[in-house]
Design a protein that fits this description.
Blueprint lengths: L5 H7 L4 E4 L2 E4 L2 H4 L2 H12 L3 H17 L2 E4 L2 H8 L8 E5 L4 H15 L5 E5 H7 L3 H14 L4 E11 L2 H6 L1 H18 L3 E5 L11 H22 L7 E5 L10 H18 L8 E4 L22 H15 L4 E3 L12 H4 L4 E4 L1 H9 L5 H14 L10 H8 L8 H5 L3 H21 L6 H7 L9 H6 L2
Parallel strand pairs: 3-6, 4-5, 4-11, 5-6, 6-7, 7-8, 8-9, 9-10, 10-11
Antiparallel strand pairs: 1-2
Helix pairs in contact: 3-4, 3-8, 4-8, 5-20, 6-8, 6-19, 8-10, 10-11, 11-12
């Protein structure tokens, strides 16, 4: 059901949510949950009318707040960890690409079942592009999932790899930096109170001096962090992540970490001594995003440098009071390695591609729909196929780009299909939360502080509808 106008929206919510004079009041949460909420969330994404989409998102966010579901920053938890107040777990950061509503619901179910409070939803700058999910939309979907699964408490949503494109930066610095600032502003307005700034693309190994290698990284990082501090709402300190080594390139080392951190902190203090610095640091340890597909479409085994991960995480905590190091590109690692991340006090791990693979490769995913997507990719992404690539390698590398063009079809898959895939994802989340020792972390989140609610803004939602 797609609402034809505001009257139909109001009628749909009758006796569940009262809408009067621009205000939202929840009347019956139990009645709202189930199909009525599913329809509301779907309209927040697919309704052709931007004003209706904006109204749906505003209602979802307002209801969530009434129920104690609060978009929040993980800054206080990471600050506590950086000062030795809790340890022994790794925070899973889960990238939301396909089936965002079902995936988010499965994550919340897992969190409730395992008493996990320290987990992050995220979407990268590149993913926003190819999945066609802007921040305001994704936030509404996630909060709708929380309402549906009766989750309460802080919800951490993160802008992942808000990245500077090095070639575009050197072509037109101001245009590239200002474009990323605009995305940061949009994300914060939507409730993304966790932003991973990635200026590691600007690192150059040409100079011998490591400070000069990292100079653009920390200088542009300071500029963007300062922008975050200017834009964050009163009462919230956005958690900002930094990065010293681009994923898929050379492994990071201690000299790079210290060069980045020492100069970043010094330069940020010059801008404003009261500005809070970064809360964690992403490093390169031998992984690559999505893994490396072999000719048959399987993924090559990765040699992950655990010694570097352990050492740099320890230095970042002990000397800089960060939560620790962040591991990217890990979802395709062998399952028997995940227990090592909490053992080595890895602060956070980013997981994406395997969830996408589970969706496409599920026995419940319609074969004809999958072939329709693959046929589209062979045409639309033909220029991405290198001469030595097999078709299996090409599809593996490009099928992430099927989520955006076929977004309505994904949302309109049969409910039974989406439910079964959601159960499969939930099983994987249980495995990961257990291996990362993320269960029973709600107490740490509560000890770190109470989330500060920001009142939803109807015009803001309509503007970004």
């Amino acid at each position: 059901m797609i609402f034809s106008g505001k009257e139909e929206l109001t009628h749909h919510l009758k006796s569940m949510v009262n809408l009067s004079n621009g205000s939202v009041h929840l009347e019956n949460a139990d009645k709202l949950r189930g199909t009525p909420l599913d329809i509301l969330v779907k309209n927040s994404v697919l309704n052709p009318n931007g004003e209706i989409r904006g109204n749906c998102r505003y209602i979802i966010k307002s209801v969530a707040q009434e129920l104690g579901i609060i978009p929040a920053s993980i800054q206080d938890l990471y600050h506590a960890r950086g000062h030795g107040k809790n340890k022994g777990y790794t925070v899973p950061a889960l990238n939301i690409r396909g089936l965002p509503y079902e995936m988010s619901r499965a994550i919340f179910r897992t969190a409730k079942a395992t008493d996990c409070g320290a987990f992050i939803f995220e979407i990268a700058k590149s993913e926003i592009g190819y999945t066609l999910q802007r921040p305001h939309e994704l936030m509404a979907v996630i909060l709708g999932a929380a309402i549906q699964e009766q989750f309460t408490g802080p919800v951490f949503v993160q802008g992942d790899h808000f990245q500077i494109n090095a070639a575009k930066y050197h072509e037109d610095r101001d245009k590239e930096v200002n474009g990323l600032k605009a995305l940061i502003d949009e994300a914060i307005q939507a409730g993304f109170y966790n932003i991973d700034i990635d200026t590691s693309t600007l690192v150059t190994l040409d100079p011998e001096d490591v400070k000069e290698q990292q100079r653009l990284n920390f200088e542009v990082g300071v500029e963007l962090t300062s922008f975050v501090r200017e834009k964050e709402p009163v009462g919230i300190t956005v958690s900002v992540g930094g990065e010293i080594g681009e994923v898929g390139k050379e492994n990071s080392n201690e000299a790079e970490l210290r060069a980045y951190m020492d100069n970043f902190n010094e330069d940020l203090a010059k801008v404003n001594p009261n500005y809070t610095g970064i809360s964690k640091i992403s490093i390169q340890t031998g992984t690559s995003h999505g893994g490396v597909p072999l000719p048959d479409g399987t993924v090559a085994e990765v040699q992950l440098d655990f010694e570097t991960l352990e050492n740099l995480s320890r230095i970042s905590r002990e000397d800089y009071h960060l939560a620790g190091a962040v591991q990217h590109g890990a979802s395709t690692l062998p399952s028997d390695l995940f227990h090592k991340f909490p053992e080595l006090e890895t602060a956070e791990i980013h997981l994406a591609t395997n969830f996408q693979n589970m969706i496409y490769d599920s026995p419940h995913f319609p074969a004809d729909f999958k072939q329709e997507i693959y046929a589209h990719l062979r045409q639309a992404c033909a220029d991405e196929k290198k001469p030595d690539m097999t078709d299996e390698q090409f599809i593996y590398k490009t099928r992430k780009k099927g989520f955006g063009p076929f977004r309505p079809q994904f949302w309109n898959l049969p409910e039974q299909v989406k439910t079964e895939i959601g159960k499969e994802l939930e099983g994987e989340f249980h495995f990961l939360f257990n291996k990362l020792n993320a269960q029973n972390t709600t107490k740490y989140v509560r000890e770190a502080g109470t989330p500060h609610p920001i009142t939803p803004n109807l015009q803001n939602e309509i503007q970004h509808g």
